[in-house]
Amino acid sequence: MAMLSAGVVECFRLKYARTNCVTTDCESRSSLSIFWQVPQYVLIGASEVFMYVGQLEFFNSQAPDGLKSFSSALCMTSISLRNYVSSLLVTIVIKFSSRDNIFGWILGNLNNSRLDRFYFLL
């Protein structure tokens, strides 16, 4: 739901950013308010709170007494591994979406990027 919300907001942001563009190298800002991003951040924040608390509670309740700190470390390690997988996914999307002299989905200038496609892919 959060990525769907992010994709829809990005579609509107691109629409507002491109209406002010005259050239293909548009550097102008979008007139869309930053508060349009609140729903996606609320959804991501709520899901992370429920997931992290539940995961940590599971590790602490199922681990033997001598391994509670190890299980907490394992929980944090799984969180860091998710961040590495996320970075790998971004690298893969950049590589595959920018082949054959076609601009990719994630560029330096967000007004020329297609982050909406990336969000919908997620």
TrEMBL record:
It is a multi-pass membrane protein. Gene3D superfamilies: MFS general substrate transporter like domains. One of its GO terms (molecular function) is transmembrane transporter activity. InterPro entries: MFS_trans_sf, POT_fam. It is found in: Membrane. GO terms for cellular component: membrane. The keyword Transmembrane applies. Pfam families: PTR2 (PF00854). The keyword Membrane applies. Keywords: Membrane, Transmembrane, Transmembrane helix. Belongs to the major facilitator superfamily. Proton-dependent oligopeptide transporter (POT/PTR) (TC 2.A.17) family. PANTHER family: OLIGOPEPTIDE TRANSPORTER-RELATED. This is Putative proton-dependent oligopeptide transporter family. It comes from Rosa chinensis.
